[in-house]
Automatic annotation (TrEMBL):
Signal sequence, renumbered to the chain: none
Organism of this sequence: Granulicella rosea
A Pfam entry, by short name: PepSY_TM_like_2
Transmembrane segments: 33-55, 163-189, 196-213
Origin organism lineage: Bacteria, Pseudomonadati, Acidobacteriota, Terriglobia, Terriglobales
Coiled coil ranges: none
UniProt keyword annotation of Membrane present: yes
Keywords on record: Membrane, Transmembrane, Transmembrane helix
Domain of life: Bacteria
Name of the protein described by the UniProt record: PepSY-associated TM region
Length: 215
């Protein structure tokens, strides 16, 4: 008995144009980069946002500053004229251990009658003045508080090369987050024009503030 069933053939799928495929892939990659770069740089963005505010209002935290005066001595044999050259390493390590100092040595200056040694760290400074004839020193230690530490880290002041590299990496991350966010805007057709207008308006506003209020 003959069958009345007929075989339906599906229409052939039309090939997707290269431009459309590139556009879709660009949107996917941009969204992926924007999401994960944003998460990776979340702590960085939060840190620089908060410290930008505290840095702009450093006078709010002046009361946190603490200054102490100390005194002591180092062996005369480490100093001229007993020694041809001052024993820099021994002097620095003696000051560190005796006075519990931290930070990097930012200056070691030798004058006719005095040696000055300075230690610097974020929110911290210690300056010792050593009498070359007696070996006695006067030390001033200034600690500016936790907020000052954060402010100096924001600026990269006295924080060392490693922290400087972190700031550079943060700048690259934030640049990529900004650019991928801008790129994503071009794929949101309903919001593209308004988004671009707001971006331009924000830039113009900053420029006008600079012209009007910056001396």
């Amino acid at each position: 008995m003959p069958s009345n069933s007929t075989t339906e053939t599906k229409p052939a799928r039309q090939p997707v144009p290269l431009a459309a495929r590139l556009r879709k892939q660009t949107a996917i990659v941009s969204r992926w980069l924007h999401i994960y770069l944003s998460m990776a740089s979340f702590a960085v963005v939060l840190f620089f946002a908060v410290t930008g505010l505290t840095l702009n209002h450093a006078d709010w935290f002046v009361s946190q500053q603490r200054t102490s005066q100390r005194s002591g001595s180092v062996p005369l044999e480490w100093l001229p004229p007993a020694a041809k050259e001052p024993a820099k390493l021994e002097i620095v390590e003696r000051l560190r251990s005796a006075e519990k100092l931290h930070g990097a040595v930012s200056d070691f200056r030798v004058d006719a009658d005095q040696i000055a040694v300075s230690f610097k760290a974020p929110g911290y400074a210690a300056d010792a003045f050593i009498d070359s004839h007696t070996g006695k020193y006067d030390l001033t230690v200034t600690s500016n508080g936790f907020v000052a530490v954060l402010n100096d880290l924001h600026k990269g002041r006295d924080a060392g090369k490693g922290w400087g590299w972190l700031i550079d990496a943060s700048a690259v991350l934030l640049t990529l987050v900004s650019l991928t966010g801008l790129l994503l805007l071009f794929f949101v057709y309903k919001r593209r024009v308004s988004g671009l207008i707001l971006a331009v308006a924000g830039g113009v506003f900053c420029w006008l503030v600079w012209l009007k209020f910056v001396p």
